[in-house]
Amino acid sequence: MPVSSSVLAAVPAPPARGTAHERQSRLHALDGLRLLAALMVCLYHYAGRGGPVSASWHQSPAHVFPTLSQMAAYGCLGVQFFFVISGFVICMSSWGRTLGDFFRSRVARLYPAYWVALVLVTAAAVALPVVVHPVRPDEFLVNLTMLQQPMGATRVLGVCWTLWVEVRFYALFALFVVLRGVTYRRVVLFCCVWTLAAVVCRTSGDALTDQLVMPEYAPFFVGGLALYLIHRFGGDLLLWGIVAVSWLLGQSTATQGLWHPGAQGDFHRSPYVIIAVVTLAFAAVAAVAVGWTRWASWRWLVTAGALTYPFYLVHEHLGWFVIRVLHRGLGLPSWPTLAVTVLGMLTLAWLIHRFVEKPFGPRLKRALKKARTPAPTALS
Predict the structure, then answer these.
(1) What residues contact 80, with CB distance under 8 A and at least 6 apart?
(2) I want to staple 220 with a disulfide (CB 3.0 to 4.6 A). Which of 10, 57, 83, 190 is the partner?
(3) Phi, psi (rounded to 5 degrees) for 358
(4) Tens-digit pLDDT profile for residues 117-162
């Protein structure tokens, strides 16, 4: 995807985007999409896969929910949906910020809720180890860093593999864009170079390069970055071309990773549906980018967006515990069990947001900002 210097020389000026209320309503819609993606992943973990959740239901979810499980099997694509949204949001939130600001905002955003989720899931594993076994103390301590996956430690949170993907995206974007200041030209060059590197990486066979470049997920982040540029500067052939190439590559990597011909146990995925879901993910964020979601200005969407991250962290393993207690322990029917579990995890997410993220996130950010490099002494 070559980009000539002449193409990038004329950087478009941000067009008028209407009132502040209109701009905010687009962000409301984005909050709603984040929760939708989280609910997709949640349904996948409760009704669209086998493994530990089958033990909680006492049988495969495909037998408990014959119709729902066929749709829930595609809920894992909520992760790719998240990555498109993340590209959009990270580009938006890093504009005009220094590298230090970017680092502090990411740490304060990710870690407080994450640490609480680690403690809650570990406590549940100790209380009811038949659902999920507790990890060793050394592995729990490594999990506090969010670097357990490259360290080879057992994950406390099943979903935290996606956080490792996000962290690598943050690092790449920080080093190649935020470090020198976020501009239209630098974001476009970053998108083009990362896309080319991801394509070349598919043939390299080098594990380290694969870890750094993330060819299976790069198209989704790149698509989100380009969509934010469309939102900020307006669309043109170059930006829509980046989005189109990202969609073409993204649907390919998603289909290759999630569709397998022949028997797949109780759960089956169609390559056509995978492509359709990926397409809808890009289209939904594109609708936000071009301003088609101005009407979605309900205040509850802000709360929905705030609940998304803590809900995503706690829903999987803690949800399996709740399902086992309600369904197998208390005999509650399957559909009420599913509804109560989802609502319970949303309530827990609100509690984490209200009593952990809101008070401690800003405090952590301020504490990091107060850190100063010691002044050189006369002997140094």
Answers:
(1) 217, 220, 250, 254, 278, 281
(2) 83
(3) -65, -45
(4) 999 999 999 998 888 889 999 999 999 999 999 999 999 999 999 9
